[in-house]
Specification:
By secondary structure, the protein is of the alpha+beta class. It has a domain of 63 residues: Lrp/AsnC effector binding domain/regulation of amino acid metabolism (RAM) domain (Alpha-Beta Plaits, 2-Layer Sandwich). 22% of the residues lie in helices and 31% in strands. The chain has 2 helices and 4 strands. The chain has a 4-stranded antiparallel β-sheet. A hairpin with a 6-residue loop joins β2 and β3. The longest helix has 12 residues. The radius of gyration is 17 Å and the shape is globular. The N and C termini lie far apart (46 Å). The N terminus is likely disordered.
Length: 97
């Protein structure tokens, strides 16, 4: 059996789309922005008010961040979570020859 000297570290990535009470979008966004694990966050127009990108080290941390910290903010009405199955890869530019 072959042993590897380095351990591959994989983080968990998810996107959370959030609906909140009218006129609380900015305050909810600011509360979420302060949480550990939030890599990007922005307000949106359309079906959701806010979208947040989360990166944490484990599935348990992901679950706790969403269920305990984000969903318990009083002005949040609903959340929809998309958990990424693999790390993003950069798109390669294709030459047109």
């Amino acid at each position: 059996m072959q042993r590897f000297s380095s351990v591959h570290h994989r983080s968990e990535t998810a996107y959370v789309m959030i609906n909140c009470e009218t006129s609380y979008e900015t305050s909810v966004l600011e509360k979420i922005r302060e949480l550990d694990g939030i890599k990007e966050i922005m307000g949106t127009f359309g079906n959701y008010d806010i979208i947040a990108k989360i990166e944490v080290e484990s599935t348990e941390q992901l679950r706790d961040l969403i269920s305990i910290k984000i969903r318990r903010i009083p002005q949040i009405l609903t959340t929809t979570t998309l958990v990424c199955t693999e790390q993003p890869t950069p798109l390669l530019a294709q030459s047109m020859h």
